[in-house]
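Lab meeting tomorrow. Please check the following:
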Amino acid sequence: MKNTVTTKWLGNMKFESTNPSGKTLTIDAGPESGGEGDGLRPKALMLSGLAGCSGLDVVHMIGKMRLEVADFEIVTEAELTDENPKYYKSVVMHFNFYGDDLNETKLKRAVDLSVEKYCGVMEMFRQFAEMSVQINFNPEK
């Protein structure tokens, strides 16, 4: 399967990127790098893609398993290498589930299936970063 993304320069350090569904997003550098900070940063966007990929898997399984979850978020923390080209050397994903009647065993199974079997972005990240996952039930916000 082939995916095509078109990314057009809008001037200065800003780009508009269109994905296969036709939706667009803006990419821009921060002021410290000559941009205006009007868009998403490329490396942070990678982390959003990782969380989104796994999140979609988990939500799909929550539905299939008929689990009750009031809220769900993924907080992704990553550390860059010191030398150029800088890339993520370690990533920690915190899967935070909220609700009064959480089935912790099944929710852990849903996360494990995503992380170990279904999330292709996770597999890509494993090629260059040390990955770890933490599953939290009703953590403090």
